[in-house]
Predict the 3D structure of the following.
Amino acid sequence: MTERKTTAGKFTAPKFTAPKFAARNRFPHLKQDFAASLVVFLVALPLCLGVAVASGVPAELGLITGIVGGIVTGVMRGSSLQVSGPAAGLTVLVFEAVREFGLPVLGVIVLATGVLQLVMGALKLGRWFRAISVSVVEGMLAGIGLVLIAGQLYSVAGTKAPASGLEKIAGLPGALVDAAGSTRALTSLALGAGTIAVLVLWQRLPRAVRTVPGPLAAVGLATLVATLLGLPVATVEVKGLLDSVRLPSAAAFGELASVGVLGTIIAFTLIASAESLFSAAAVDRLHHGPRTRYDKELMAQGAGNTVCGLLGALPMTAVIVRSAANVQAGARTKASRVLHGVWLLLFAALLPSVLAYIPIPALAGILVYSGAKLIPVREIVTLWREHRGEMLILVVTAVSIVAISMFEGVLIGLALSVVKTAWEASHVKLEVIDKGAGPVEAYLSGNATFLRLPKILDSLEALPQDRPVELDLSGLHHLDHACRTALETWAERHSAAGTEPVRVRPGR
């Protein structure tokens, strides 16, 4: 505030300089983030419910994870525009865990997963997840997608799905035949198929129409049709948000001594972390803002999963569908994802009865569509043309997940990836120079490992037995113990054949 003196010597009224609005200074992009948060909320709502129902847990638990993903993980540093919540990629693993260990133990598993993620983030291991073979990750997603599609097709038809992935796929023809003879099943099937059709066609509609997210439109239309026509289809069971919270008990913590539970925790940790950090890399390509800090993002995911575990909710990961919607809706800061968690909380607290009208076949249809998008068809075609070894890893990983289980399938894929890398890294070349007289000269170069040992020995044993040999190892970058021992044994055998001892020029 300043005072001004007039030419007549009188003073005018004080002039106030209006300060800038504090909230605008602190949240310069509030308008864009507010609008984006509404879009993300509308996308997240049906997906949270669908993932929960498909996982065999109360629908409210999916909302709780979405709320924690927005409000807890959303405020933390890492990736500014990435949105977290329950993911279709963990549905199969969660369903198996609940079926095998029970819902009370799920909270302990998720809690332990969160703690492990916090530890790995503190040890700065987040960046190492980028070293996981892309073929293994895509194979994992493809396997999850296949099992998810097969399992949710039973829900679309209003029947119960078998337990294992192979049984789900093998039983589909019979389930469809049974559905054809039931009016109730056909009605459920038609509603689910209609939901999928809306999702497929939604992207082709005018831009003005597509301002409403496809999943929300599909579920909204299915709910409207089922309610107005009074269709005999199953709907979401509502218990209430607080009634669905399950704090882990002492007995549940006792299950940590089980090998099966520990294996599930490791699977949750690896898959949730890899999916989140790969999603972060994808989101970074969608915008020009701050890049992801992987170790901090891993800790943010760990904090969110720790809270979810304490509440007995579903595990969370970063979700590419919600994250892409956030970026495309014009979000600028993490305020958009925090606000989307607030909207989820308000909806669950103020309008829980609305959930009871949502048909389960519609939610199953959304997950069938989501599962199909997890299968990297274009990548498979590209790998077939350019890197068939990588395609083999992708296919084997996917088939192993379907045929055995998630954890074993991922381990098989990782093992294949390591073996392939070791094989490609162990390039070795043997050059033989035989001038017709004097010793035969053999030059080994590259990396001599046990993986290439048969090739090396076959070439050396083919050398003339009645001629002296000079073996030059100076071109080798690496010579492992197995190869060194085998070369020494070959030299002794060759020298014992009555020729001069093999002369070896050692490597570096």
User: Anything to note?
Assistant: The chain has two domains: 28-418, 428-505. The chain has 21 helices and six strands. The radius of gyration is 31 Å. Confidence is low (pLDDT under 50) at residues 1-9.
